[in-house]
Design brief:
- This protein is an alpha+beta fold and about 80 residues long.
- About 35% of the residues lie in helices and about 25% in strands.
- The chain has three helices and two strands; from the N terminus they run αβαβα.
- The chain has helices spanning about 1-10, 35-40, 60-75; strands at about 15-25, 40-50.
- The radius of gyration is 15 Å and the shape is globular.
- The N and C termini lie far apart (about 35 Å).
- The mean pLDDT is about 85.
């Protein structure tokens, strides 16, 4: 049931700017430009790569970097 609803859902393109936060290990998932993989979801995509692996973003000093990045981008949202 959930799978059918999920596959039928078409959210369309977000009419604003999205922030894609990757850690260094994620960059290997994208052979070229990560924006191309996410372009169908938002009109504009900012990509930021943080150092370390996925868990590094959740522990100091990575969590402080992530919080600062989110604060910066959220403060620009009208």
């Amino acid at each position: 049931m959930v799978e059918r609803a999920f596959s039928a859902h078409d959210p369309g393109v977000y009419p604003g700017k999205a922030l894609l936060i990757l850690h260094e290990d994620d960059t290997a998932l994208y052979t070229d430009n990560p924006v191309q993989s996410w372009a169908a979801l938002a009109e504009e995509i900012d990509v930021t790569v943080l150092p370390g692996g996925g868990h590094a973003m959740l522990e100091e000093p990575g969590s402080a970097r992530l919080a600062a990045l989110l604060n910066e981008h959220l403060s620009s949202v009208p």
